[in-house]
Amino acid sequence: MKTFISILFVLIFQLTVVAQTQEQRIREFELQREASERQAYKALLDSAILLSQQGEYLLADSKFRQLLRTTKSVPSDLVYHFGENSFYLGNFKQSVDWLNKYIQLKGTTGQYSAQAVERLKSAEEELMKERLVESKQAGQVLSQDYDIDCGPTGKVTCPVCKGSTVIIKKGYVSDTYKTCPYCHKLGYLGCEDYNLLLKGQLQPSTTKP
Ligand SMILES: [Zn+2]
């Protein structure tokens, strides 16, 4: 009986050891996998940075985006270089956003802090220029929004037939003549019709030539 109990103890001990080494192996395997994932990530990041430095901004951009898709916590190197690359792509809003993030993250002591501050300044300047152009476009004054004063006569020579009341179409054999559909054989337009014509809203008369 005594022997049996000691054998049982030895068995239990051995089983525990086996279980422990198995657990250790799984942990080691996990660590290895994480390490190789980190390595692959770092390699992709390095190649993206290199492409950006070589002026291949579009290619670099697609790699940066790939990296951003596969990670939840973005490494600061990626934050800076994505901001820098966005500047060269003319994507100034995106550039300002990421460079600001880098400066918030690293302050003035980060590896790229000096460059980030410098680049952020130019990106903000470019962004401001863009916004100025946009606001000018939004505030553009177009003539079609206004009625044109036709002067004291209230009449304007018909711009379609140039006052001739006929429109001549050049043909191979002979020319065809057609009555101007806008000025009712007058050769001129009243001011109201003239303004409608300028806006493309004057309906041509459907009378046959
Ligand atoms: Zn006419």
Report on this model:
There is one protein chain. The protein is mainly alpha-helical. The protein has two domains: 2-138, Tetratricopeptide repeat domain (Serine Threonine Protein Phosphatase 5, Tetratricopeptide repeat); 142-209, no CATH class. It has six helices and four strands; from the N terminus they run H-H-H-H-H-E-E-E-E-H. The strands form two sheets. Strands 1-4 form a two-stranded antiparallel ribbon. A two-stranded antiparallel sheet has the order 2-3. Strand 2 and strand 3 form a beta hairpin. Helix 1 runs antiparallel to helix 2, helix 2 runs antiparallel to helix 3 and helix 3 runs antiparallel to helix 4 (92-106). The longest helix has 52 residues, at 2-53. The chain is elongated. It starts with a helix and ends in an 11-residue tail after the last helix. 18% of the residues are buried. The mean pLDDT is 89. Residues 158, 160-161, 165, 180, 182-183 line the site of zinc ion.
